[in-house]
Predict the structure.
Amino acid sequence: MSLQITQTEIVALSSVALLVSTFGVVVRRSFAGWLSAYKYESVALAGSTALIAYAVGIWEIYAAAVITLVVKAFVIPRLLVRVTEKVNDEFKIEANPFISIRLSVLVSALLVALSYALVHVTLPSVGLDELAAAYLPVSLSLFFIGLFVMVSRRMALNQVVGLLIIENGLFLFTTALTSGVSLIIEVGILADILVGVAISALLLIRMNQTYDTFDIGSLEKLKDD
């Protein structure tokens, strides 16, 4: 008896992988945990991009999937690890977020439900294909959860990861809705992201050297004399 997996099932599995890895950022407290969850999310994103490439038969999307895998799953995490090597471990742990972990999970689940509701409400009038209908709510979920992470966590390091999650959501949204854009544009966007991450990392180091903290709540209390 042979076990056959349909494309619909593979799309569903990749969607689940994206959401589970994103929730990994929400439930973890350490910077290493955030990067690990982001890395798994990026691997799932690259796989989803390759699946879209297979469905539409455009080789440029395969190239975008490979570039996404290399840049987001390996280069960016290694870069952030390297530039934060000398940062004290206490600044790499979210000990006192603005919103508790349990409540954050609940809010994130509600954001996922909202994303699926928004897509299913607009789907009949837009007439999306199967892949777009499957990935658009996931991309919106990534965007909303990334935004939520940025506003609910105190540590700037976690907010950088939240920004990266937002970008992953936008990337999936664009790829699923348009069946991929020009490879040159994809490369330019990824290069821009890489530069942005490098600048953010350098600013974080400077912040640590100047104020000896990554706690946004503490920085907001600083006033000029």
Q: What stands out?
A: The chain has a mean pLDDT of 76. The radius of gyration is 18 Å.
